[in-house]
Design brief:
Length: 489
């Protein structure tokens, strides 16, 4: 007869769908989760502990709410040990285990939160050449953003695809319940509570994370719906929630402004800038304005871009927010390098120091993008602009290594463009054309306006090349830019 702890824990399938279990998962309340498992699965603390890799005493601490789980790997261990199905995993903030080869449902997922059908995201827009048209499914982008915003780990394109593929109609139904409170709150602000505010904050974070991977056109309508909901709730919200709602609305508006610019809608972009400025003031978070001006620096050139970055730095606090501080220092280094100012190298050092102190996944909704790969891309861009051939080659290797992990990330177009320019600078025209071609293909695939604009320098370089491959690439660059209505940088 096996010992008590040796028997596996078998959780009834319907337990994962119970409202109290969904509440425990969305709150990441492991003590509550263990109590429910013990109650409905009829297992001891010892058996739970063996299943998830805890001692009986540790399980007891969680069940008595004397300890809390915060580490992602521990959440993963609990999910694996208890055999959580994908809907439960996603409610806990983990990626589903569904394999990318599993056929996706052909029917649309029911919308929630009042999302119109036209606000759905088609998975075909995300998958690059890996599925047939009849394998496509529609995903509620608001729910996708909420799930992405709750993930602790960095989110690459594969994780995004797993989440989108896991959002079947069945799993969507189990996730819908948390948003009932939002529906009631929109009907009357007196129904607003802590959980609803936290979910809205997570959704803003999620939209920022999705922007690194998805085209602006796929996110714009869902983000606008999100802002409309926030606007409705801010009016008449209790004081204890008003500033938090205003802050997350400001963070969402900065992204909406960037997307509007990407979609060549300058008037809408300016309108969202005004919203973010008002939200920054209302919430008491002036740093939101730092993000707004940082995005503006991407949309301008030369001195105007440098001015925008320096304006952004005025909104930084004296201490803290090191991820945003590092981002602005990297940007300033890039723009100084563009005018040949050697101070750019000093600023790179300061940016690296700030990045060393930063916690990008914990600071602001917009700072999740700043990782070692993005830092390498900033370094490469700065050294290319300075014409520092020795440092360029080292930076090239580091930046290319970062693209190996996620070849469809929007930054890939920028990295390949800078690598191409570096190759041209050292006289390796064949390699320059190869990487410039990759940059163009990446910009087209991710619909990255900024990536295409970054190729403007390559256009000028290619104009001086005489071989057939360079002339063909130049023609493709010009054709793509004209078709998208984008002007060279």
């Amino acid at each position: 007869m096996p010992a008590d702890g040796a028997e596996p824990v078998v959780v009834p399938a319907d337990l994962w769908e119970r409202p109290e279990m969904l509440t425990a998962l969305t709150k990441r309340d492991i003590g509550h989760l263990f109590r429910l498992v013990r109650q409905y699965a009829g297992v001891s603390q010892t058996r739970i502990g063996v299943a998830v890799g805890f001692s009986q005493g540790k399980v007891s601490e969680y069940m008595k709410d004397k300890a809390q789980v915060t580490a992602l790997d521990v959440f993963e261990r609990i999910a694996e040990g208890l055999g959580m199905p994908d809907p439960a995993r996603m409610a806990l903030g983990l990626a589903p285990r569904i394999l990318t080869g599993v056929p996706l449902p052909p029917t649309p997922i029911p919308t929630r939160d009042g999302t119109p059908a036209s606000g759905l995201l088609n998975v075909e827009q995300v998958v690059v050449g890996s599925r047939q048209p009849d394998d496509a499914c529609d995903v509620d982008v608001l729910t996708l953003a909420w799930i992405a915003g709750r993930l602790d780990a960095p989110m690459d394109r594969r994780t995004l695809l797993l989440i989108a593929a896991g959002l079947t109609a069945e799993s969507a139904a189990s996730i819908a319940n948390p948003w009932d409170r939002l529906t009631r709150a929109l009907a009357g602000p007196q129904s607003l509570d802590e959980d609803t505010v936290e979910r809205l904050e997570a959704r803003t974070i999620g939209f920022h994370r999705l922007e690194y991977e998805l085209p602006a056109s796929a996110l714009c309508q869902g983000l606008t719906s999100h802002l409309n909901e926030l606007s409705s709730l801010i009016h008449g919200a209790p004081d204890r929630f008003r500033r938090r709602l205003a802050a997350t609305a400001g963070e969402a508006a900065t992204l909406a402004s960037w997307l509007a610019w990407d979609l060549q809608q300058p008037m809408q972009s300016a309108s969202f800038d005004r919203v973010s400025a008002l939200a920054a003031k209302e919430s008491g978070h002036p740093i939101i304005q730092a993000c707004t001006y940082a995005y503006k620096s991407y949309a301008t050139q030369d001195g105007a871009a440098l001015d925008a970055v320096r304006q952004a730095q005025h909104f930084l606090p004296k201490q803290g927010d090191d991820a945003t501080r590092a981002w602005l220092l990297f940007l300033e280094a890039e723009h100084l390098a563009a005018i040949g100012d050697s101070q750019a190298v000093k600023l790179l050092g300061q940016a690296e120091e700030a990045f060393g102190r930063a916690r990008p996944n914990r600071e602001r909704a917009w700072t999740r993008f700043l990782d070692p790969g993005r830092m390498a891309a900033f370094q490469l861009s700065t050294y290319v602009r300075l014409g520092d051939d020795r440092r360029v080659m080292d930076a090239c290797q580091q930046a290319l290594t970062s693209t190996d992990q996620d070849t469809d990330h929007k930054r890939t177009a920028i990295i390949y463009s800078d690598v191409a320019q570096a190759q041209f600078q050292i006289g390796n025209s064949a390699a320059g054309v190869t990487y410039a071609r990759r940059a163009l293909e990446s910009a087209q695939r991710t619909e990255s306006t900024w990536g295409l604009q970054h190729l403007g320098t390559i256009e000028k370089t290619l104009a001086g090349q005489r071989d057939q491959a360079a002339r063909e690439l130049l023609g493709d660059l010009i054709s793509t830019r004209r078709s998208l209505g984008s002007s060279p940088a």
